[in-house]
Amino acid sequence: MQNEKLRIMIEISMAVALSTILSFITLWRMPMGGSVNLVMLPIFIMAFRNGARAGILTGILYGAVRLMLGAYVVHPAQFLLDYPIAYGFIGIAGFFKIFTEKNQLNIINFIQAFSIAALGVFTSHLLSGVIFFADSAPAGQNPWVYSALYNITHVLPTIIITAIVIALISKRPEIVFLSYRENQS
């Protein structure tokens, strides 16, 4: 049991470090925060490999690391919504078992996992946009519409790209997704 906890702590640390590195490799960056990259990939892998608890913790810790690396912050509550809470939502994907007993990708669970995680991330960013960035909306535009359009332009492509990468590497789940204990059996 002690070794299992240590293994998970080490994997979480590695996933946070890898997410941090991936945050510097960006396809495009939005003017007021948000970007398209593979930063979510290690968090999803932790969630699928070790469950929702480890995935959520990985996301929250990565969000906290973003503060140290110069996150775009206008208010402490905005920081929480845009970073630890948003990235923590990715970890809920770990509630879904995306592989069958024969290590085949379960498409239904895969789509559900990504959809629920994406909805959580998007909602967290949406609320942050409405509450803290409503004054950035063009004159006469509803802040909800502005925030939704702004955030969908980076959340949706990031989720889609991450889902494609995970679908591709899921062809060999024993390499990435199965925990150490499962690989020993």
Task: Give an account of the 3D structure.
The chain has 185 residues and is mostly helical. The protein has helices at residues 2-22, 41-50, 52-68, 76-90, 107-132, 143-169, 173-176, 180-184; strands spanning 26-29, 35-37. The chain is globular, with a radius of gyration of 17 Å. The model has no long low-confidence stretch (mean pLDDT 91).
Could you provide a short overview of the structure?
This protein has 185 residues and is mainly alpha-helical. It has helices spanning 2-22, 41-50, 52-68, 76-90, 107-132, 143-169, 173-176, 180-184, and strands spanning 26-29, 35-37.
Which fold name corresponds to the CATH topology?
Answer: Arp2/3 complex 21 kDa subunit ARPC3
Estimate the strand proportion. Answer: under 5%
Q: Please summarize the sheet with the most strands.
A: 2 strands, antiparallel
What is the terminal separation in angstroms? 17 Å
Indicate the CATH architecture. Answer: Orthogonal Bundle
* Structure summary, number of beta strands: 2
Structural class: mainly alpha
- Overall 3D form: globular
Helix content: 55-70%
Q: What's the helix and strand layout?
A:
Elements: H1 2-22, E1 26-29, E2 35-37, H2 41-50, H3 52-68, H4 76-90, H5 107-132, H6 143-169, H7 173-176, H8 180-184
Helix pairs in contact: 1-2, 1-3, 2-3, 3-4, 4-5, 5-6
Task: Kindly list the characteristics that best describe this protein.
185 residues; Thia_Transptr_ThiT; Arp2/3 complex 21 kDa subunit ARPC3; 8 helices; transmembrane; membrane; mainly alpha; two-stranded antiparallel ribbon; transmembrane helix; Energy-coupled thiamine transporter ThiT; 2 strands
